[in-house]
Write a structure and sequence with these properties.
15 strands, Rossmann fold, UDP-galactose 4-epimerase, domain 1, alpha/beta, binds NADPH dihydro-nicotinamide-adenine-dinucleotide phosphate, single chain, binds guanosine-5'-diphosphate-rhamnose, 7-stranded parallel sheet, 354 residues, 2 domains
């Protein structure tokens, strides 16, 4: 039985990856942080004793800033595969916590690589690093592929740039199977509520159920290549199964604005939106009631914005046989809105069911 260690196991991707690897027959070990309130909502379903998968699922306390903890866990578990998903993952928040973000997202990656090297596991343990389309930031080429130059636009992007290069450097210096998945935005019903897609779908659910008046958003013109997280975790695994250690762009190859996402999300809940005004004065009106349901609030603007991201998944398609459009943009929006409407009707908190 193969053993996998997942950092960030209770995040969006960590939870889907755990489901996926347990289904594949892996023994899965995950690292979570101590928290004063429950933080295991997304992986709770894996704790249920009657579930066969729970026999092979182990949780350990740890932190990406705690070197001795990381060395101890890797030494005890001796994983065949490490998926380094833990990160301070919010781009806007990284402007307020730049040093911490560098420590967790940048040096944290080094701590994993060094632990594997110090423990002499270079030939046994394959390492996946969660790299990001935020590396491209101010884009130098459209669409972005593995060879496109990087230009990060946030402390998060800069910290992840270190993570990217140190992974590549350890691969080249110590002959380790250490690789980057450069993943473009991927969303789901398990997405954190402060990211724009989930913020929109939760607001749509609450507004259509009379529990919220309007949705406040920042840059409506930002364009992203949005995929479905469940499809993307399969790719993380495929990257580690590949014969040679290589970096891959994972994306759908389709780009939409925040405005388009919001329009479609409201439509799925039966609300037709008409947009009026420009820039910070732009508003979204419900055509049936004439009520304002979306308003722009400059509080949500970024200090340095990434205006557009569009990935080219050709390499992953060709070498990994991955299907980038297994779930379409329309299906993704529908999955999230349907899920959140049910959640709001039942008046549950967003992540308590996982
Ligand atoms: P989430 O924010 O949902 O999850 C992040 C995880 O990291 C959480 O489990 C969090 O734990 C954990 N974490 C944060 N800080 C620490 C720390 N100091 N020590 C240990 N664990 C920590 O992110 P996603 O699941 O969406 O993303 C997974 C990874 O992929 C991240 O590295 C992200 O930067 C990257 N990525 C994500 C993309 C996306 O579109 N989702 C695209 C490209 C890259 P806690 O719950 O305690 O905060
Ligand atoms: P991003 O995701 O920054 O791409 O990082 P996010 O959903 O936060 O923003 C996407 C775009 O939407 C614009 N936007 C808003 N964003 C938020 N959060 N809230 C708003 O109200 C709002 N209004 C408009 C943003 O300005 C931005 O342009 C995500 C994270 O998961 C990273 O960890 C990951 O690396 C990248 O995706 C790829």
């Amino acid at each position: 039985m193969k053993k996998a260690l997942i950092t960030g196991v209770n995040g969006q991707d960590g939870s889907f990856l755990s489901d996926f690897l347990l289904e594949k027959g892996y023994e899965v070990h995950g690292i979570i942080r101590r928290s004063s309130s429950f933080n295991t909502g997304r992986i709770e379903h894996l704790y249920i004793e009657e579930l066969k998968s729970s026999e092979n699922f182990y949780i350990h306390y740890g932190d990406m800033t705690d070197t001795s903890n990381i060395i101890r866990l890797i030494s005890e578990i001796k994983p065949d595969e490490i998926y380094n998903l833990a990160a301070m993952s919010h781009v806007k928040v990284s402007f307020e916590t730049p040093e911490y973000t560098a420590d967790v997202d940048g040096i944290g990656t080094l701590r994993i690589l060094e632990a594997v090297r110090i423990l002499g596991l270079e030939k046994k343990t394959r390492i996946y690093q969660a790299s990001t389309s935020e590396l491209y930031g101010k884009v130098q080429e459209v669409p972005q592929r593995e060879t496109t130059p990087f230009y990060p636009r946030s402390p998060y992007g800069v910290a992840k740039l270190y993570g990217y290069w140190i992974t590549k450097n350890y691969r080249e210096s110590y002959d380790m199977f250490a690789v980057n998945g450069i993943l473009f935005n991927h969303e789901s019903e398990r997405r954190g509520e402060t990211f724009v897609t989930r913020k929109i779908t939760m607001a749509v659910a609450r507004i259509s159920n009379g529990k919220q008046d309007k949705l406040l958003l920042g840059n409506l013109d930002a364009r992203r290549d949005w995929g479905y997280a469940k499809d993307y975790v399969e790719c993380m695994w495929l990257i580690l199964q590949h014969d040679t250690p290589e970096d891959f762009v994972i994306a759908t190859g389709e780009m939409h604005t925040v405005r388009e996402f919001a329009t479609l999300a409201f439509k799925h809940a039966g609300i037709e939106i008409e947009w009026q005004g420009e820039g910070i004065d732009e508003k979204g009106f419900d055509v049936n009631t004439g009520e304002i349901v979306v308003e722009v609030n400059p509080e949500y603007f970024r200090l340095a914005e990434v205006e557009q991201l569009l990935g080219d998944p050709a390499k992953a398609k060709k070498l990994l046989g991955w299907n980038p459009t297994a779930t379409s943009f329309e299906e993704l929006v529908e999955i999230m809105v349907t899920h959140d409407c049910n959640l709001v009707k039942q008046e549950k908190s967003a992540i308590s069911e996982y």
